[in-house]
Amino acid sequence: xxxxxxxxxxxxxxxxxxxxxxxxxxxxxxxxxxxxxxxxxxxxxxxxxxxxxxxxxxxxxxxxxxxxxxxxxxxxxxxxxxxxxxxxxxxxxxxxxxxxxxxxxxxxxxxxxxxxxxxxxxxxxxxxxxxxxxxxxxxxxxxxxxxxxxxxxxxxxxxxxxxxxxxxxxxxxxxxxxxxxxxxxxxxxxxxxxxxxxxxxxxxxxxxxxxxxxxxxxxxxxxxxxxxxxxxxxxxxxxxxxxxxxxxxxxxxxxxxxxxxxxxxxxxxxxxxxxxxxxxxxxxxxxxxxxxxxxxxxxxxxxxxxx
Length: 307
Prior knowledge:
Layout: E1 5-9, H1 15-31, E2 36-42, E3 57-61, H2 66-76, E4 81-84, H3 91-96, E5 102-104, H4 117-127, H5 147-157, E6 164-168, H6 180-194, E7 197-201, H7 206-216, E8 220-223, H8 228-236, E9 240-244, H9 247-254, E10 259-263, H10 268-271, E11 278-282, E12 303-306
Parallel strand pairs: 1-2, 1-4, 2-3, 4-5, 6-7, 6-9, 7-8, 9-10, 10-11
Antiparallel strand pairs: 11-12
Helix pairs in contact: 1-4, 1-9, 5-8, 6-7
C-alpha cells in the first residue's frame, strides 16, 4: 500500500511511552519515505521529536483532553494511515470509524511476557504489512540533539571531573522510587572509587534533589527543572545514568548513554534496555509482587535479580 498522509497517535501519557514508540514511528516513516508524518502526543514528551528528520509535524493534546484532540484532528484533516498505541476513552473506536484508508489501533495485543514493548509494536506493524519486512528497521529509539543544544549544555555544566554520572531519584509513580538514602550511598561510592562528578536531576521534589546532592558532597550538583530537550541534551553529554524505570532512563538509553535502570515493580522483560545497558530487576518471587497492576503493590521489592 502507498500512503501519503500518516498520523501516529501516541497518547499513553508518559515520556517513556513516547520513547518506546519511537522505533515504530521511525519504521513507518522509513517504509513510506514520501509520506507526510504527523505525530499527536502530549507535552512535554513531544519536544523529544524536534529535530527528528523522519517527522514532519508534531501536534499536542492537552492533558485530560486526549479524546477531544483526536476528534478535532479527524474532523479537520484526512489521513491515509492512522497508527495508534492508545485505546482508552474510546479513541480506538474514533479512529476505526474515521474515513482513513487503513487504521492500526492496538499495537499492544497479545504480548508475550518477555517481549519488549517496542519490539511488539514493530512485529505487529510487520504483520499488518505497514512496514517493510525486507527493510531492516532500527529496533532501538533514537533522539536527535543539535550541536547548538550540546554547546549550551556544556556551558551550563562547566568544567567537571570525568566521569559525569547522572542520578535520577524521582519517578512519576511513587512505587517506582528508590529510597533517597540509596542514591546518596551510590553517589558517594562513585565519587570514592572513580572521582566522579555527580549530577542529581531535580524532579517534582526539588528539595529532595538538593538534599541528595548536599549529602553526597564534593562534586555533586543539581540539574534544575527546565525544558525536556535541555535535560536530554545534558544527559547526552554525560557518561552514565542511574534511574528508576522512568522517562529519563528511556531518554538516556535512546541517546546511547550507558544506563543502569532500577526495575522495582515494573518488568525489565517488557520495558528494559538491551546490552550494554544494565537492568536491575526487583525480586520476581517477592510475595508483594503484583505484575498485572504494580501500582497496587505495598512496597518496592528487593533488587536481587540482574539481567
